[in-house]
Structure formats: C-alpha cells, structure tokens
Amino acid sequence: MDTAIVTGGRGASGRWVVDRLREAFEVVVVDRDHPGFGAAPVENVDFRAADLTDRGAVRELVSALEPDAVVHWGAIPALGRHPEGQVFENNAIAAYNVLTAAGEAGARIVQASSDGAYGFFFAEETPLPDELPITEEHPRRPEDGYGLSKIAAEEIAAGVARRRGVQVASLRPSWIQEPGGYPCRDPDYTENLAAGAGNYWSYVDARDVAELVYAALTTAFAPDGGHEAFNCVAADNALGEPLEELLESVYGDVPDAGPGVEGDGSAYGIGKADDLLGWTPEHSWRDAVDEDVPRPELTQD
C-alpha cells in the first residue's frame, strides 16, 4: 500500500481527508501536536509531530518516510485569531517547506488553497466578480495576508511542478461544513444576507473536499508534471435562493460577463474538477444539515 503524508490531518477538515485516504493509503499525519504515545491510531494511520515552518525538520521527515503522495493541509485557516503578518508567514513558509520536500521525494501533491485567493471575502469592500460563474481562470486580487499566502502557495506549487516534474493540485474550498453542523444554515447567517455576501453564500461539505483530495491524488491529470488549481464548492448556494437575485439585493448589480448561474447555483464554477478529475460534489445543505455523521476519530479508545 502506498504511503501518503497529510499535514494538518488532526484539524476539523483534515481528519475527513485522512479518513478518506486511509482506505487506499498508509497515512502519516504530520501536525504540530502528537496525540500521545499512548494513543492507538485507527487502521492505516500513524502520527508525527513537526513544526512545518522548520525547513530542516520537514525535509528530514519527508525524506525518511519516502511518501508516494503528500497532502499539505496544515495552515492557519483564516484571519482573525493571529496577526495578519503571522498568517502570511506561517502559511507561505510551511507551503514552501512541505511542497519542496514533497517534490524532492517525487510525490504526487495536493494542497489546500482557498477561494480566499480570489480576494473577495477579506477585501475592505467586497467586489463583484468579473463574471459568473467564477472559474479558476478568474483574476486573483487578494489584499489581505491570508489570501496573499494562498497566492504564494499556488506559485510555489507551480514552481515545484516545473522543477521536479511532479503533479500538483491546489484546491480552493469555500467555507467547509461538517455534516450535522453546517453553520451556513444558522439563522444568524440565513436571515442576514450581508453575513454570506463576502463569498457569495458558497460552502462545501467536508466529505466532498476529502473526495476531491482523493481524486486529485489518484488521477493522472498531469502525468509529465504540472500544476492545476480546482474550485471545491457545493453545486448550490447556502440560502437556496436564485444567486443573481441575492447579488442584486446586496450589491445592486450582477456581473454582465460570462454565462451566468442558473437558479440557486453556486457562484463558483466546478466544471474543471469534473472534466479533469471526474469530481462533482455529492452533498447539499438540504440533506447534510441534519445528518448524524460523527466526525472521524483518528485514534481508538
């Protein structure tokens, strides 16, 4: 069985990725903290503790494990709880260290980018997109440290792919939800249009994220080496209302370029992931908000 390293695998969304990958890989979770030597991991999961901003430690660890695949999911996931400069430095340096080491190992690579790379959500004044749907070719114009860190990570990925001839996918999720939780359906969100306007009411289920990671690792979309970015969002918006009417209500306008979005569709296009990876999201808030699906446990009691 092939070996896959997953950084940040003990996090809220990372554990869904680990749980999906352990069906096909021996997974080694690399995180800042270790669950403890007394913890018994579930089948096909092991742990290492490392500071991803420590270049030497990351390189040594990856070299020793000789992974077939590396999923870089470890990062500060948003602004607000750390100084902005620290968010940028942590995320950009960790991406450089992990992706460079993974490329040297000849591994297939997937990393967590974000719709924050487009620059909508954390902008001082949220702009309308140039067109709908927002495809991966849409200009990226972030102003903030988080979005800029994702731009840096994607450029690092492209550089590693060129230099090492490896396949790298950067996934751009938008507000990952866990089944049964779904804060995008809380009344504070659904009854206040402005609350979700920054990412145009988009979201994605953690299980669909994990499935896209798996698809990107196991599909040869760039067998001779190359980097591709993929939007990772649900097919519908979180309010279940016609998207263009929502935009008109909040912004007083809708983009006049592109084919538009039908009904309650997402602002983000997902056709590229379907075309290259055969991935389409399976989950909607309509079913998942009340699902009783426990968060994956990575250790046994």
What does this structure look like?
The protein has 301 residues and is an alpha/beta fold. It has a single domain (3-300), classed as NAD(P)-binding Rossmann-like Domain (Rossmann fold). Helix content is 34%, strand content 16%. It is built from ten helices and eleven strands. The strands form three sheets. A seven-stranded parallel beta sheet has the order 4-2-1-5-6-7-10, sandwiched between helices. The chain has a two-stranded antiparallel ribbon with strand order 3-11. A two-stranded parallel sheet has the order 8-9. Helix 2 packs parallel to helix 3 (84-104). The longest helix is centred in the N-terminal third of the chain and has 21 residues, at 84-104. The two termini are 25 Å apart.
Q: Could you state the CATH homologous superfamily?
A: NAD(P)-binding Rossmann-like Domain
Give the end-to-end Cα distance, rounded to a whole number of Å: 25 Å
Tell me, what is the CATH class?
A: Alpha Beta
- Kindly report the oligomeric state of this protein: single chain
Helix share, percent: 25-40%
Morphology call: globular
Mean pLDDT: 95
Number of strands: 11
Structural class: alpha/beta
Question: Helical region count?
Answer: 10
Q: How would you sum up the major sheet?
A: 7 strands, parallel
Percentage of β-strand residues: 15-25%
Q: Low-confidence stretches at least 5 residues in length (pLDDT < 50)? A: none
Cα Rg: 19 Å
Count of separate structural domains: 1
CATH-defined architecture: 3-Layer(aba) Sandwich
Strand order of the largest sheet: 4-2-1-5-6-7-10
At CATH level 3, the topology is Rossmann fold
Order of helices and strands: EHEEEHEHEHEEHHEHEHHHE
